[in-house]
Amino acid sequence: MHRYESQNAAGARLEGHRLLPLATALLDSDGRILHWSEDAEKLVGYPASEAVGQFAARLLVNEEQWPQVLSMFDSITSGRGWSGTFPVRHRDGSNVELEFHTYPIVGPEGRRFVLATASEVAALRTVEQNLAILDGFFSQSPIGLAVYDTDLRFMRINDALARMNGLSSEQHIGGTLSEVLPGINAKEIEEVMRRVLATGEPVVDARSHGRTPGDPEHDRAWSASYFRLEAPSGQVLGVCSSIIDVTERFHAEAQAEQAQQRLSLLAEAGARIGATLDLRRAARELSEAMVPQLADVCAVHVLDRLVGGMDPEPVGGAQSVYVRRLALASASTEFPAADLPTEGVYRIPSGSPYEQAMTGRRTVIVPGAELPPLTDVRADRVSGYLARRAQPVRVAPLVARSTVLGIVVYGRSVDREPFDAQDSTFGDELISRAAASIDNARLYLREHENLMERQAALREANAARAQLALINEASSRIGTTLDLQRTAEELVEVVVPRFADFVTVDLLEPVLSGEEPDKLRGDKELVLRAVAVGESGDSGMTNVADAVGEVSRFESRKLYAKALRRRRSVLVPEVDEESLSAIVSSQDRVAPGLAAGVHSYLMVPVLARGAVLGGVEFVRTRHPEPFTPADTALAEELVARAAVSIDNARLYRRERETALTLQRSLLPQETRHTLGMEIAHRYLPSSVGSEVGGDWFDVVPLSCGRVALVVGDVMGHGIRAAATMGQLRTVARTLATLEMQPDQVLTRLDETASGVGDGQFATCVCAVYDPVDRSCTLACAGHLPPVVVAPGGGSRPVDLPAGVPLGVGGVDFESVEITMPEGGILSLYTDGLIERRGQDIDEGLELLCRTLADRGRDLEESCDAVLTALVPEGSEDDIAVIMARVLPVPEDKIATLPLAEDVALAGEARRFTRGTLASWGLCSLAEITELLVSELVTNALRHAGPPRQLRLFRDRTLTVEVADTSRQIPLLRPVEEDLESGRGMRLVNELAHRWGSRMTRHGKVVWFELEIPPGTGA
pTM of the prediction? Predict the structure, then answer.
């Protein structure tokens, strides 16, 4: 059912159409559409291109509604307008309920038209409802509401705001806030509204305050919110505000803010006042906290006794009381602050408000004109200001822990409100806190003085303890070895950086060589060599002092030379250019020394056993404190301890050199070339132990090109071990030259060692090598087995009976014969080569075998390789090594003739000898050699078994030997004139260079040697 209303009933809502899309259409008298608006297209969906020219009834309504629509159209064209709701057909086929307003129009020549407007009914009802709500909100709200145009003039105001302002709505409309309410801060509010108009950003809780016609006797406060009004098109229409009265809350907030400010000020003052425990700082902080927040002028006075560190005395007695002004603050430029200087001391007048405040321990309020200023300058200007510009002045005592400490005088100018109860409480609290801080500062000052005294005593005790600790450490660290340079380095390590930043130890040249230092003469320059230098970090002293090993020469006038001659230390607490010039050895070191920061210098002579050994220089560059006499005493103690160790090292070096010289003199100085064998040897004294050992070796040339190799080790160290070693080596060499077998040599050596006594034991290994058949006979007395290296590189220890050490006695020794391969190496050594603490000796022996098995080196290189591999860092024992390589015997060096039992044998032997010597170029020896050969062969035929062999050797000498089957040794017998017996051996003894005999497995050999003349074919 559609509702139809008269034109009058719908007129009340025409204004509301402006808030909605309003469709317009113009129809001619036959119902054809002549005009179609954009809003019409929005409402029913037909664009103007489709609607214009069409019959409205056919386009917008169903066919069954045409009669009704045509009847209504005829009525409208006849001059009766119509308004009402009617459903029309949307372009999408749905129905849209529209509210129409039609207007008949008569055109030119009486032509009739119909103008129709339409709005959607649902949207229209929503707008009407919203307007009703808005009207009710505006008229019924208890909150003040107002609407302003773009010129900020009132357009509408509700009754609640009108009542707040005390004016009617009509008195507001058209006026600005400044015009309507001149008693409030209207300009500020209008600036806020202009900003809202310009930016569109709303403002909430904008405060305004002042007086309105509604309550002209009291200040009121309001909280307002503002937002911009805009049309749907975006056009700015004005500003709307909502306002509530917050007067009570404003006063509460103001009081809370004031209380918060005072609380914050009190907290800030509490944190600042007395934070440093300084009396003057605490007084100044109190005055700054009082001015200008609480007062315009404030002066803080403290009892003068407190400032002097004394305890306060009771106030109010017969004795005068003096106070010192420690702080003054003023917020007024007119106040004559210059007439009240700080640090002034004044006597408190008897009966004055100052005395009343201190004795009564309460605040005294006195008119400014009646307060006597505490000043020695012009009191009239201060009194005049107080009388003219100040409110009554407050004099408050400084009281802490029931003790009066001073007074605080403060006041306000006449331009400010008088002190109220809260101000008084606030001031008393500030003064109370300041009094506690001042008293704390007083107590701190007293305790600080006591603490300083205790700390000074503690520093002295700590310094003494540190010196004692340094001396104790020096006792344990200096002199750990008998090495002179290492001892000096230990002194440097102890004192750097704890005592000095740079230290150098210089010693006289004779001391370094182990000699006795010469007496220092005043006319000679001193020559010293740096043995140890130490510095803390990069001190820059490298360009000022000598490096280790460098020599310094000091003229006799230099401080260094004078100190050594006088045997006294030199202390230069503060070093400048002049003093440094007298210290350094050359002037080109002055500038680098100053650049390095040398500021204090100490030199201590090194004295031991009445002799001057050198000097120690101590320098401070980074250490801030200069050297003191106490430091000098400490340095002298440290140097004295080091001096004894240095002198001990010097004496030890001298004694060790003496022992080593003795030991080297007892060892073979050279090894003679041996036919058929190349020999190399090494001897290393102990590099760790403090004494020489008893290791020895020997190479003994024997007859017929044979050679004896001996290596031994006397147990123990020192001169006694070296002397025993010399005895055993001499005996061994003698026994070997007597053609004894190795086991026989060891037996005689055992007897010799037993005869030395005092449990002197030794180990020894003896080998005799014969180059003819490359046989090597060995015997061992408790020594490590020799190592044989095959030509191909394999190596192994020789399997020998170990035997017992020499000196044990009562045990037989056994010889073992081996055949050495051509090119093979035989190595004999002492236990210092392979024995190491904490390591199995078999490991060392295996390493020795592996090292020797590495071929490709000559014999000297093999010796060096063995020492490098087995003794990389020195040995705790002496080391002796012999290496012998088997060489082939040249055919032109030996000649052999087999012999048989034949009377013509002597002639054959002579012919063989003559021919051989001729081929060797030794014809000059032929005659005598033939004679002696004939005698030996004849002796063998007559007195021994049948001769077996004649052999000639050509080496450094000519050796001839005759072998037979007899084991009887030929002896020299007295020659009887009537007998020829004994003449042969006597002849050999007279004509030969030397002769002898030795036992063999098949008998014996008798031999003699002849010296080869120089220049012949040797």
Answer: 0.47
